[in-house]
C-alpha cells in the first residue's frame, strides 16, 4: 500500500472532500483520511449560495449537483406580531456568478457526490476507519500516525490539511488559540420527512424573532422540512429531543399526521475563528478553522471557499511553481472574509433573540419605515497575493459566459480585450493559464477601464492591467502579503 503522498487531508467531511477534488484536479497525490467507517448520515447544512454552485461547476461536478439541489428563495425575519423586520431578498435568477443566490440540499447526498467524484482521480485515495492520533513535522514532511482497526500505520506527506471539524486534532497540533466572537447558544434541530414531495413548496425561510419560541422554519427542498429552534432556559435538556416533546413544540406548524420525524438533536452553535491556520507543513480548513451559527447558511460555504483558496496554492508549492510562502496568503486572504460572514450572522442571531431590533452591519438598507432589506454579502479577500493593478483584487470575477467556468476549470484564466502577442500568450500558457477574449469579457474589461484581468482558479481576481502592462500579471511579477 502506498504510504507517501504530497498531501494528507485529515477528515472527509464536505471540506476535506472538496479539497481532495481541487488537489485531484491539479494532479497532486493525495490521501484523505477519516476516522469513521462512513460519512455522517444526518444533515447539518441545508443551504449554499451561488459562489459555491460556481465552485462545483469549476470542478466538473455540476451535473451531479443539479440533481440533488432545489432553488431557495428569500429569508424573512418576522417579529411576534408577524411584521417583517428584515427581508433578505434572494431572487430565483442567476447572479454575476452564473447561478441563483440560494440552493437547498440534503448534506449526506452532497457529501456522496463530493466523495464519489474522487474516483475520477488516480492520484487521490480515500481511507476510512483511519483515526489520526499524531502529527510530527520535520524539514521534509509530516509523519501521520493513524489508528486503524487492524493496527497502527504511519503515512508520510509533504503537507497535512486538517479538515477535521470543530474539535480539530490538527488545530491542536498547530497550537492555535481560538478567537471567540461571543455567540454560543443551544438550538433544537428537527428534520422531518414528508410522505410525498410537495408539488409547489414555499421556498422562503422564516426566522421568528422575539417570539415565545424563537427560531427558524427552513426550506430544505420538497421532500423534507426543518425547524431550528432556540432552547429556552426552562426547557428540560434531558427530554427535549423525545418525539412527544418535539411534536408538542412543532404543534403550531405541523403534526405527526403530516410528516415523519427523521431526527431531533441539540447543537450548540458557536462563533469562533482559529488564530493560526498554518504552522509549517500543517494547515487547517473548514470548521477546524472557523465556526458560525447557521442563520446565513454559511458555515460549510466558508469551508468550501477555504478549500478552493488552498488547493491551487498547495499544488503550485508542491510543483515548485511558487515558494512555500504562498501558503501564508491562505489565512490572510480568508480570515477577514469569514469574519465578515460571522459578524453579520451574529447580528442576525441577535435580531432573532430580540436583543436587537435591526441589522446594523452588512449589505443592509433601511426602506424608510418598512422592513430593512438585505442582499448577499460579497466581501473581498483579505491581504494576500497581488499582481498588476490591485483595485479589483480579491473580488470575485463575474462568470462572463454561461459555460465559461466549466471550460476553464480550476485553472487561471487571463481575459483580455484583444489577442495577446504570441510570446506573451505562450508565457501564460506555460503557467497552465487559459487565455480568453470573449465579447462579454471585453465589455466588462472596457467598463472597468483595463485591458486584461487575471482570474485565479477560485475565480477571485488576482489583478488587472493596461495593454502595455499585461506581463505584470505573470507569476514572476506576483507579490505576496501573507501573515
Ligand atoms: C444545524 C446546523 C445547520 C447548518 N446549516 C448550514 C447551512 O445551511 N449551510 C452551511 O454552509 N453550513 C451549515 N452548517 C455548518 C456545516 O454543517 C459545517 O460547517 C460543515 O459540515 C463543516 O464541514 P467540515 O468538513 O469542515 O467538518 P465536518 O463535516 O465536521 O467533518 C470533519 C470530519 O473529520 C473527521 N475527523 C475528525 N477528527 C479526525 C481524526 N483525528 N482523524 C481522522 N478523521 C477525523 C470526522 O470524522 C469528520 O468526518 C450547519 C451546521 C449545523 C450544526
Describe the structure.
- By secondary structure, this protein is α+β, with helices and mostly antiparallel strands.
- It has helices spanning 14-25, 50-58, 62-66, 107-116, 169-174, 243-250, 299-319, 328-352, 404-408, 422-430, 439-448, and strands at residues 4-10, 30-33, 47-49, 69-71, 75-78, 84-88, 102-105, 124-127, 131-137, 142-148, 151-162, 178-193, 205-208, 215-219, 224-230, 260-274, 278-279, 282-284, 290-291, 364-365, 372-374, 385-386, 413-416, 434-436, 452-455, 461-465, 479-480.
- Among the domains are: 4-70 and 104-180 and 271-338, FAD/NAD(P)-binding domain (3-Layer(bba) Sandwich); 385-480, Glutaredoxin.
- The protein contains eleven helices and 27 strands.
- Helix 1 (14-25) packs parallel to helix 4 and helix 1 packs parallel to helix 7 (299-319).
- It binds flavin-adenine dinucleotide.
- Flavin-adenine dinucleotide (FAD) binds at residues 10-16, 33-36, 44-48, 131-132, 163-165, 169, 189, 267, 286-287, 294, 297-301, 303.
Walk across the major sheet and give the strand order: 19-16-12-15-14-13-5-6-21-20
Shape: globular
Q: Considering DSSP H and I runs of 4 or more, what fraction of the residues is helical? A: 10-25%
Rg to the nearest angstrom? 23 Å
* The CATH superfamily title of one domain: FAD/NAD(P)-binding domain
| Beginning-to-end CA distance, first to last residue | 38 Å
Low-confidence stretches: none
Number of helices: 11
Largest sheet data: 10 strands, mixed
By CATH reckoning, the class of one domain would read Alpha Beta
Beta strand %: 25-35%
Instruction: Please identify the oligomeric state.
Output: single chain
Structural class: alpha+beta
The total of beta strands comes to 27
CATH topology of one domain: FAD/NAD(P)-binding domain
Q: What CATH architecture of one domain would you give?
A: 3-Layer(bba) Sandwich
Average residue pLDDT: 94
Amino acid at each position: 500500500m502506498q504510504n507517501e503522498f504530497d498531501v494528507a487531508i485529515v477528515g472527509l467531511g464536505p471540506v476535506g472532500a472538496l479539497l481532495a477534488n481541487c488537489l485531484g484536479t491539479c494532479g497532486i497525490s493525495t490521501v484523505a483520511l477519516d476516522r469513521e467507517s462512513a460519512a455522517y448520515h444526518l444533515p447539518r447544512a441545508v443551504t449554499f449560495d451561488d459562489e459555491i454552485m460556481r465552485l462545483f461547476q469549476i470542478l466538473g461536478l455540476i451535473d451531479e449537483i443539479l440533481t440533488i439541489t432545489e432553488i431557495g428563495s428569500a429569508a424573512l425575519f418576522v417579529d411576534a406580531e408577524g411584521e417583517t423586520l428584515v427581508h433578505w431578498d434572494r431572487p430565483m435568477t442567476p447572479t454575476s456568478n452564473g447561478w441563483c443566490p440560494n440552493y437547498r440540499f440534503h448534506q449526506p447526498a452532497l457529501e456522496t457526490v463530493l466523495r464519489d467524484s474522487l474516483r475520477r482521480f488516480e492520484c487521490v485515495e480515500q481511507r476510512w476507519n483511519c483515526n489520526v492520533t499524531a502529527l510530527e513535522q520535520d524539514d521534509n514532511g509530516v509523519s501521520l500516525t493513524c489508528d486503524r482497526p487492524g493496527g497502527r500505520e504511519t503515512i508520510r506527506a509533504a503537507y497535512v490539511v486538517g479538515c477535521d471539524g470543530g474539535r480539530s486534532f490538527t488545530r491542536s497540533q498547530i497550537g492555535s488559540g481560538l478567537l471567540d466572537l461571543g455567540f454560543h447558544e443551544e438550538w433544537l434541530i428537527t428534520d422531518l420527512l414528508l410522505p410525498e414531495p410537495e408539488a409547489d413548496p414555499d421556498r422562503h425561510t422564516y426566522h421568528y424573532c422575539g417570539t415565545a419560541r424563537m427560531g427558524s422554519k427552513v426550506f430544505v427542498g420538497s421532500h423534507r422540512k426543518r425547524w431550528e429552534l432556540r432552547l429556552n432556559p426552562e426547557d428540560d435538556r434531558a427530554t427535549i429531543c423525545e418525539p412527544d416533546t418535539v411534536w408538542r413544540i412543532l404543534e403550531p406548524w405541523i403534526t405527526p399526521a403530516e410528516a415523519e420525524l427523521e431526527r431531533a438533536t441539540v447543537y450548540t452553535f458557536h462563533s469562533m475563528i482559529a488564530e493560526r491556520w498554518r504552522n509549517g507543513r500543517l494547515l487547517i480548513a473548514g470548521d477546524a478553522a472557523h465556526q458560525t451559527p447557521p442563520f446565513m447558511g454559511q458555515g460549510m460555504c466558508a469551508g468550501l471557499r477555504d478549500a478552493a483558496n488552498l488547493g491551487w496554492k498547495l499544488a503550485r508549492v508542491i510543483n515548485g511553481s511558487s515558494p512555500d510562502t504562498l501558503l501564508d496568503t491562505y489565512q490572510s486572504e480568508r480570515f477577514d472574509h469569514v469574519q465578515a460572514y460571522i459578524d453579520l450572522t451574529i447580528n442576525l442571531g441577535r435580531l432573532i433573540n430580540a436583543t436587537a431590533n435591526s441589522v446594523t452591519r452588512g449589505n443592509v438598507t433601511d426602506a424608510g419605515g418598512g422592513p430593512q432589506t438585505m442582499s448577499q454579502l460579497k466581501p473581498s479577500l483579505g491581504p494576500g497575493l497581488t499582481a498588476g493593478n490591485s483595485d479589483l483584487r480579491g473580488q470575485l470575477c463575474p462568470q462572463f459566459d454561461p459555460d465559461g467556468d466549466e471550460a476553464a476549470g480550476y485553472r487561471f484564466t487571463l481575459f483580455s480585450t484583444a489577442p495577446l502577442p504570441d510570446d506573451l500568450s505562450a508565457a501564460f500558457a506555460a503557467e497552465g493559464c487559459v487565455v480568453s477574449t470573449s465579447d462579454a469579457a471585453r465589455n466588462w474589461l472596457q467598463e472597468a477601464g483595463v485591458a486584461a484581468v487575471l482570474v485565479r482558479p477560485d475565480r477571485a481576481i488576482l489583478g488587472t492591467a493596461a495593454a502595455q502592462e499585461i506581463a505584470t500579471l505573470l507569476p514572476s511579477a506576483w507579490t505576496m502579503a501573507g501573515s
